[in-house]
Amino acid sequence: MDNYPAGAANDPRAPWNQVDPPAVAFNVAATFTLEKTVELTTVQYEGGETDDEGYTEPYDTLQVEWKDEYKEQQYNPVELLEKLADLVEQNLDVIRSKLLYLHPDWRTGYLTTEMRRYKGMIECARGWKITEESYEE
Questions:
Q1: Which residues are 46's β-sheet partners?
Q2: Is 25 exposed, middle or buried (0-12, 13-18, 19+ CB in 10 A)?
Q3: How distant, in Å, are the alpha carbons of 24, 43, 55, 67 from that of 48?
Q4: Please, are residues 9 and 43 in contact by the beta-carbon 8 Å criterion?
């Protein structure tokens, strides 16, 4: 005798007899808008001179190509993700070399878990593209 209500043990509509559908992979475009204020230096300004009375003329940076200055001094998010993925790959190589020296029974433990985590990080970091850029003071 079971503990199900009468006649419900084999009922396909009963919650305990429901089967989850298999997972299906879909290609989804993820779009994020990121913004970060950074300090950039430039020599492409006008003004900034101080007169005899101590007044300093404001800087005029209308002619500055901020996109060029940024690219010379900073990594954009995609470049940064690529650099980080390269570092993670280096760590993954270290783990692989450590696995060679471990007893086979220990290879399924912590280091293989770390390998899976690092591979996931690399997969997440790669493949991004910049669809829109903006640089302003």
A1: 60
A2: exposed
A3: 61, 11, 9, 22
A4: no
- pLDDT tens, N- to C-terminus, the chain (137 residues): 577 777 777 888 888 778 888 999 999 888 888 888 999 999 998 888 888 888 888 889 999 999 999 999 999 999 999 999 999 999 888 888 877 777 776 666 767 788 888 899 999 898 888 888 888 87
Q: Directed axis angle between helix 110-125 and helix 77-101, to 10°?
A: 160
The tokens for 115 are 């390998």
Count of other CB atoms within 10 angstroms of residue 118: 20
Q: Which residues, in sequence order, are CB contacts of 92 under 8 Å at separation 6+?
A: 115, 118, 119, 122
* Calpha distance 28→22 (Å, rounded): 18
125 neighbors 117 (Cβ within 8 angstroms)? no
Q: Judge whether 48 and 57 are in contact, CB under 8 Å.
A: yes
